[in-house]
Design brief:
Layout (H helix, E strand, L loop, with lengths): L2 H4 L2 H21 L19 H11 L9 H16 L3 E11 L6 E13 L7 E7 L9 H19 L7 E7 L7 H7 L10 E6 L5 E9 L16 E2 L1 H9 L5 H7 L3 E9 L16 H19 L11 E6 L2 E6 L2 H22 L5 H10 L1 H21 L15 H22 L5 H22 L5 H19 L7 H5 L3 H19 L4 H12 L14 H23 L8 E10 L4 E8 L4 H4 L3 E5 L14 E5 L9 E9 L4 E9 L6 E7 L4 E7 L2 E4 L10 E8 L5 E8 L5 E8 L15 E3 L6 E9 L1
Helix pairs in contact: 2-17, 3-5, 3-9, 5-9, 6-8, 10-14, 10-15, 11-14, 12-13, 12-18, 12-19, 13-18, 13-19, 14-15, 15-17, 17-18
Amino acid sequence: MSRFKRLPPARLGTLLLMLGLVVFAALALIPLRGPSPAGSGAPAGQFSAGRAEPYIERIAAEPRPMGSVANAEVREYLVERFRALGLRAEVEATTAADSYPDHASVAGRAANIRATLPGTEGKGRVLIVAHYDSVFTGPGATDDGMGVATVLETARALKSGPAPRNTVEFLLTDGEEPGSIGAKAFTDSPSAGDPKHTVILNLEARGTTGPVVMFETGKDNSAFLSALSDHTPFVTSMSDEIYRLLPNDTDLSVFKKAGFTGMNFAVVGGSARYDTELDNLTAQRQGTLQDMGSTVLAATRQLADQDIAPPGAGSSTYFTVFGLLVSYPQWLGPVLAALAAVAIAVVLLLSRRRGVLRLRGLALVAGTLPLPLIGSVAVGYLGWTVLVMIRPHYAAFTFGDPYRPGPAVAGLVVLTLAVCLCWLLWMRRRTDAFAVSAAALCWFAVLALLTAVVMPGASYLFVWPALFGAAGLAVGLRLPEKSPWLGPALCAAALPAIVLFVPLLAILFPTIGLAFVSAALVFVVLLLLPLLPALLPLPRHRAVPVTVAVVALLGTALVGVGGARDGVDGRHPAQVALFYVQDADTGTASWYSGADSGRPWVSRYTQGAKSPAEKDVPALIGPGGYRKGPARGGSTSLPEAEVTGKRSLGGDVREVRLRLSSDATATALSFYADTRGTKLVDVTVEGRRMPGGQNRPSSTPWKWGCHLVAPADGYDVVVRLRGDAPLPLRLLAYRADVPAAALTSPRPDTIVWTASGFGQSIGIRTIDI
């Protein structure tokens, strides 16, 4: 007789359920693998990673920050490439400035590259955007060399076929890294055109590997989401909701402020190498490049041949299922959430009338269900704390995600499972499978209603499990107690939960990193909740708690092994931040370190506990403060300020004209105003006006600031003030290195600069105007 036939019917149903869900989980993950890279011999109309990769090799040979010689050389090369494709390309150079309510303004001279593939009859325009500048620290092979290569190869593929109906424009912006200066310059210019008939495809990177994610849309996305149906990347409208709450910006942020709409694409895996010197050619993956290119080319072709409607199409909730795009009007979300809540309420009422469910038991289970959620947060927090104790250099990764996080993530997921099993073990004498299923559905219904109002793009994650669960609970009411299908019926919510949550978690873990892994573990609990009824009733013998203990030990071991094996070497260096600061007012020089990762090489320059540095160096605003130490030897660029004119504007308003500059090695200037005694009306940089007042939520006197990028030719600045009291200005000049004369030994090959605090020098001077 078969072993399966000897199983109790309920256990047989549970086994079949688990096997089926494993299959669904695997199928849900398959689309994240992406396409195989096409070689250079691929048909002309296809995107080929083999043809696009040489572009990256050329433009990512060295860092190319805005204003640098390398930046200018790459610009010339890109213009030549467009012209070789038969497109008219032009460089649009201008000064742009942008202001923000919560941090310093930014200004600079950007040189954008624009090429056009004219349409035959359509009134619309598809605008494909990537930025060709990089950070100072690294060559930016992925950020945004991959985006630039995608633009060029997409242009070639489109040019090889018939002319599109709508015009397709290609825009390579300058100065995205210091503050989307090129995008601001474009939206302020006549070239921006009509936002009402334009859809933007912005190509970005927030990592170096993995599948392409479409993580943000603009308004009225219902009009263009269908363009993703031919080659669908991973999409979720939840990411749109979350990104809206974050302080992060890309070029699309500037376009959206100017009234444009569109979609933002990026890769998010491998963030440990992002914006560092490790974002080089060896970090490139042809599969990732192919995924980006195939997605963008397919979307461009669809948009180029359809009517691009003016505003008014409305917004959609959208997500992928087995690699297919699912979308529906966002207004339908609250309707579905309400329908799910009503359906669950009706089933619970019927269950109570039939004596299957007691309200007291339901209240007990539902009231304690937050405990596993709280436990998952604790697991994430404690796990990260332990990992940083094992590997202090983890704390310096910009996104809290090291090079090899896999074992640690797996261990934290297993520990979260152990937390859920502990709760179930505690509840086994107080409840049954029906009550656990009903309580889980109550929580899904509450979350569906809440998100439908607060974050409508995320409501689908809870609506569909709630609807399936309500149907399953209704079926379970009609099944006999020993039916093999009772377990699957009570776990019906697990099917959409698996399909929706598993690929989301595969993207979420590398996106938020180990430092914020608690947020992802909460979703793990929500995924597991619909499965728990299948485990009841738990046998009442010692094997059950022993099994739970073994699961907990396995998770702990995975976390420990993950931390132990992820050491520091030449291929996986620690990341550190070190600043050399020279103060012309005091004649002193100092070292500052915000992230030393426990590396002895950094510790020899900075000592003691961390403390705030913003009062002396307004640019150093990192949370947690900085260690400081004296610097011996070395020098850096210093800011210079010349007052070129003063005049009264009537009343108590006066105007001061300045010429700010530094030597040729300076990469940027910034100035910060102490507005305690004088009101700052506004500031104009090269004809670009920025509002005064306060733009920095600082605890120091420096309440207003402005960052000037690439100051090789200096900047003319006009400051308008109200009152006669002098206005103190703290001037900073930056250089993208630290003086070799001040170092006691070269930087080891087991250390690289962090993305957010690279090794740079800052010269400081204070003046009154």
